Amino acid sequence: MTITTERVNSAGKNTGPLDLDELTATGLRDRWYPVLPSKLVPRGDMKKVTRLGKDWLLFRDSKGKLSVLADRCPHRNAPLSAGQHLGDRVKCQYHGVEVDDSGTVVKVPGMPGCALEGKQAALSLEVVEAAEVIFAWFPATPDSKAPEFVLPEWLGSPECSFFPNFVEWKAPWRFYLDNVLDPMHGAFLHADSHSMFQGDTTARFRIRETDRGFFFEKTDQVGKNFDWVEYVSENGLDYVNLEIPYGPEAGPGGPFGIVGIPVPISADTTAVFHWRTRKVAGWERDVWRFLYRSALEDKHWAVLEQDRNMLENFATDADQAEHLYQHDLGVARIRRMYRAAAQEQAKQIAEHG
């Protein structure tokens, strides 16, 4: 089994182990990442996606079991996604080699008894389906071990109801984190929205440390706008939590919560996963879900479109040579954290050879 911790240049040539620049551009490894909503890969289907700069095959067998395989036939690296679904395996269209959901070659029809048969020669990622989404563990080295997958508490609690949301943006993944670690943009970019028109356009911020990350929050305003965000990194999963206050006209439940995870597709495109949550139970849960679908969902899409339009119009080097000020403490903090983690991971991969 080959771990994909190598980079390929524009000419298609392997240029060695993943380095700092590549990890910065296409994301850290040794992480759980959401890959695609589960409903987009029905039973007996397969779908090609690009995540972290590489192509993957999402394969669901005839019984419903899901696998994520490197989209390369072990024989000649032809795309398995161009092949044929055979129920419990995929047949490469190029030479008919058959690969099962573990990445093991089960048949080489052109040369029966070939040494490739029975060999686990295609990378198969560890997979979990939770919160209506497919998650996969992307290893940094061959001996990387995935920790137990644990959902963010807002998604795993029976007291919370959520709606998953998936979009793709033509912007680097790091722009998403910069955006969400900047609560002050809510008072300006989203000033005409249904939920962020209140509150001051001036504020002071602080960073509050936790045992799993940090909060970046306003010190002089709470419960009026996008006033805080929490960055979390635990159990191999990185995500953000934030809350938007809602009045009684928005139905039962407390503030409107968002769990967000950006997933690099390539150096300049991002898959954005959100879960829109509210703490409700019983009959109030049903009322909230009806109200969301009928009256609120379109408004939330409009807010998300404001972010997308802004970030897609940034230059790709917009996060260089800036003039940051106090409101940007959260942005500076998350950049330092990811830079340090990428440096450590690049060193780890290089030492592995």
What level of helicity do the residues show?
10-25%
Rg result: 22 Å
Identify the CATH homologous superfamily of the largest domain. Answer: Naphthalene 1,2-dioxygenase Alpha Subunit, Chain A, domain 1
Approximately what portion of the residues adopt beta-strand conformation?
25-35%
**Total individual domains:** 2
Number of strands: 19
CATH topology value of the largest domain: Naphthalene 1,2-dioxygenase Alpha Subunit, Chain A, domain 1
Task: Give the distance, in angstroms, between the N- and C-terminal Cα atoms.
Answer: 16 Å
Assembly of the depicted chains: single chain
Q: What's the total helix number?
A: 5
* Chain-averaged pLDDT: 92
Give the C-level CATH assignment of the largest domain.
Alpha Beta
Q: How are strands sequenced across the largest beta sheet?
A: 13-19-18-17-16-15-14
Shape: globular
Biggest sheet layout = 7 strands, antiparallel
Low-pLDDT parts are 8-13
List the secondary-structure elements in sequence, H or E: EEHEEEEEEEEEEHEHEEEEEEHH
Structure class: alpha+beta
Pfam family, one: VanA_C
GO molecular function: 2 iron, 2 sulfur cluster binding; metal ion binding; monooxygenase activity; oxidoreductase activity, acting on paired donors, with incorporation or reduction of molecular oxygen
Domain Rieske: 32-136
Protein name: Rieske 2Fe-2S domain-containing protein
